[in-house]
Amino acid sequence: MKQEGPLTRASLTTPRAAAIAGIVFSILLIISLLLIWISVPADLQEAGAWLPRSWKTVNLALNLLPFAGIAFLWFIGVLRDRIGAYEDRFFATVFLGSGLLFLAMLFASSAVAGGIIMIYGATPAAVMGSGVYMFGRTVTSQIVQVYTMKMAGVFMISTSTVSIRTGIIPRWMALLGYVLALVLLLSLGYLSWIPLVFPLWVLLISVYILFANLKSKPAFSS
Length: 222
Fold this sequence. Notes:
Blueprint: H1 20-39, H2 51-83, H3 89-122, H4 124-128, H5 132-166, H6 171-186, H7 197-215
C-alpha cells in the first residue's frame, strides 16, 4: 500500500560563523594594500627601482587577494541572507552586480601586477629594459583607482539603500556608507589611502553582524 506524505527537504542555511567572512576579507585586503604601499612608490613615473628589494613582498600581497576575494563572496551571501524575503530586485541586482564587478576588477589588476612580478623574477632585464613595467603599472593603477574603487562605491550605496529599507544594519552605518561611497566615487585617485575606506566599512558591518548573530543564538532545548 502506497503511503502518501509530505516531501520535506533540508534547506541550506547560512552558518552564523559566516559573518566572519567580512572580517577575513577586510583584514586580508588591508594587509595586502599596506604591503603594497610600503613597497611601491606612489609615483607612476618611477622606473621600477623598488623591484629588486621589494618584489617578494608585493608578490605576497598579491597572493593574499584570492583568499580575500573568496571571503568577500561569503560576505555577499551573508548580507543577502539577512535581507531575506525583503530583497528588492532592482537594488539586489545593483548590489550583486557591483560586488561581482569589484571582485573581477580586483582580480584583473592583481593578475596584471602578478604577471610583471613573475616576469621580473624569471628575467629581470626583460622588465627593466622594456616598456612592460610602465605599461603594467599604469594599467594596474587605472583599474584599481578608477574602476575597482568606483564599483566599491556603488556596492556601498546599494547596500546602504537596502539596509535603510530593511533595517539589516543600524541606520547610522548605512548613512556612513553613503558618505564614504561618495568619497570613493569623487576621489579620482588623488588620495593614496582611499582604497582603505571600503574594507574598513565592510569590517564595521561584519563585526556588527557577528555580534548580532551571537546575541540571537538560540538556546538548545533539552
